[in-house]
Amino acid sequence: MLSSSSTTVKNLLLKRHLCFLLKLVCFVSSVLIFCEFLIYYVVIFQCRWPEVKGGTHMGEKEMSASVLKAIVLADTHLLGEIKGHWLDKLRREWQMERSFQTALWLLQPEIVFILGDVFDEGKWSSPQAWADDVRRFRKMFRYPVSTELVVIVGNHDIGFHYEMTTYKVKRFEKVFNFTSGKLITRKGINFVLVNSVAMEGDGCAICQTAEAKLVALSHKLNCSQQKLNHSDKRCSDVEKLPASEPVLLQHYPLYRKSDAECSGEDSAPPEEKNILFKENYDVLSQEASQKLLWWFHPRLVLSGHTHSACEVLHAGKIPEISVPSFSWRNRNNPSFIMGSITPTDFSLQKCFLPYESRVFTIYCTAGALLVILILAHFQLLTPPFYFAQRLISKHKAV
Prior knowledge:
Blueprint (H helix, E strand, L loop, with lengths): L1 H43 L15 H7 L1 E6 L12 H22 L3 E5 L11 H14 L7 E5 L2 H4 L7 H11 L5 E5 L2 E5 L11 H21 L21 E3 L20 H4 L12 H11 L3 E4 L6 E5 L3 E5 L12 E7 L4 E7 L3 H22 L6 H14 L1
Parallel strand pairs: 1-2, 2-3, 5-6, 6-7, 7-9
Antiparallel strand pairs: 1-10, 4-5, 8-9, 10-11
Helix pairs in contact: 1-3, 1-10
Keywords: ER-Golgi transport, GPI-anchor biosynthesis, Hydrolase, Manganese, Membrane, Metal-binding, Transmembrane, Transmembrane helix, Transport
Subcellular location: Endoplasmic reticulum-Golgi intermediate compartment membrane
Family: Belongs to the metallophosphoesterase superfamily. MPPE1 family.
């Protein structure tokens, strides 16, 4: 009888422990699924496409058809084999992949622009390392046929001006079909893609080629925006483009002294805002910036590079938006820009991604709760109400 009773107690204890283990597995799995998958849907689901005011002559359906829905992000900095630790790669690249794929699924943009520094070590990576980085990029930033991906070159992709070579530039162009001075037109909207690293202005071969393409493109756009004038022979043989002021896309921001005038929760930290920028390193030179504004008279400039947000107004009328980094490695609160653009107007809205600190807090809280549950289950931690009950019993006994 005693043996049978002992066996029954052991079986009950075993069932109790197995049931507790199953509950722990469910708890841990739920936390992992939420922090690694669901949180991206919860956060990005709150983002909405901004509305563009249409003309009185256009109906709602016509207006909707004429609006181009674009996502703009910057500075993904995929880590390379030299400086990239495997754990850092795993964590940050998973964050960017989930953010990008969730945004595509929920928001369904027609076009996505990445404003340079796609890779962190493109400026010195070997052919084999470059091929591996490109493979990982294509996996992370895969996209459906209904979406177009356009990538701009940055200094970490081909090196700063003194590191830039024809080989590195061609290597990037071959993968991303990018050329400085390239124009793409979608729904009557002109986008000018600029290799801002080549805007040094020192007459280097790559710089001369890039500037010549930009000048030719500027001429074509200016001719397209002019009214037909048969006496103007300079535009007689020029291919006509949509008469829409272009949107300028580049990695370096146009010249500004610092980020002192920038505001917002994702602007530069207070201790960095008053640090003066170096021309052709942090921002384009004053001369190069003025050239681009003269050549194209853009209605909007979008740039990256600083990893922080900023909005500035050039010549009192041309807005420039510096897009923050898309990666947790560069900031706690990454984001991207959602743009509703027409040939004559645009409206922008920022969409924040999950904060890394909040995900970390959820894991820490769950970990602490897990420890408490385990200690309580094995009676290594006396529950507060048991402790209070014992005190009351002792008091009554006295």
